[in-house]
User: What shape does this take?
Amino acid sequence: MVNLTVFSTDSKGNKFPKESIYAEMACDMTESNADAAAEYLKYGLDDSKANLDKLLIEKNVKEDLIIRAKSTYIKMLTAYINALSNGQNPENGFLLAKEKYEYSKKMKSINNRFETAIEKAYANALLKTKRYSDALPFLETYVLQGSSDPITLSDLKTAYLAKNGQNADFDSYLLKLKTEQKTVLKEEITKIAIKEPAPEFELKDVNGKTVRLSDYKGKVVVLDFWATWCGPCKASFPAMQKTINRYNNDPGVVFLFLHTWEKKSGNPTVEAGKYITDNKYTFKVLMDLRNSVTNESAAASAYKVKGIPAKFVIDGKGDIRFSTSGFSQDADKAVEELSAMIEFAKQR
Assistant: This one.
């Protein structure tokens, strides 16, 4: 590897190697050109590790800076492992993945999100090196947790048949897992259920019609706080549309998308309606516009929204049973989790 390190600077004049930029770009190359990606990702991995180590020994460092540095390091580490695993010498990826996975299991204080990322890189390394028996338990867990995307199911089938023989009854095995999945999800969402009165609101939809929460008394109502400028909000919409499609024929379940925290330019009502129409979503959009005096969005304030996307599941008696924020990149898992919350609320 030829060292061509050239330094660039950020907006504050801090120097950082351009290779780190290349490494960020190489994260998307781990499938298409794994060996080339690994070469650049190694630069990013070394740089992120050095930055993290520096912050850990400094005094009075803000916790959010350390968390951000850890996140960057884990991103580079897992991308590098995946690139090695997908490349010409996958055994190198397996050895590194195993080392980091075993270390993460020993660290009691490690962030669950970081541990999951390392675990998935390890599972991928097991698959790429054809250690199917070892990979199978991880894949089963992902399905039980709600991940049913085509890639996971394809890997599951490969691992299952490799372990049990090509004539094994995979369909019956998968059906059993899917049945167990519903039980697991039900147990998990029961643990995070809450019960508190849902604040009433009165908003107009994109056509100017007044809508109140009380209009849907007796129904399960799913509120989704979003905005056209919010990338994660829009990234969650395909999963939301899938969930809506699942409940299309259930008059007892309603989905309301509350556009909130609009920017001070343009016409938010027009922009929100256009975005939904252009993307062919069947969402009922309400406008939680800012108050001209307080600059607050009334519904978002009433529901104590701290960040978007934020979702609330309200039962037929008017109580909030679930409150979530952020979005899952696993669309199938997001659909199953939200559906489990809805089913829970329907029974209350």
Q: What stands out?
A: The CA atoms of residues 129 and 211 lie 56 Å apart. The chain has two domains: 7-184, 196-346. The chain has a mean pLDDT of 90.
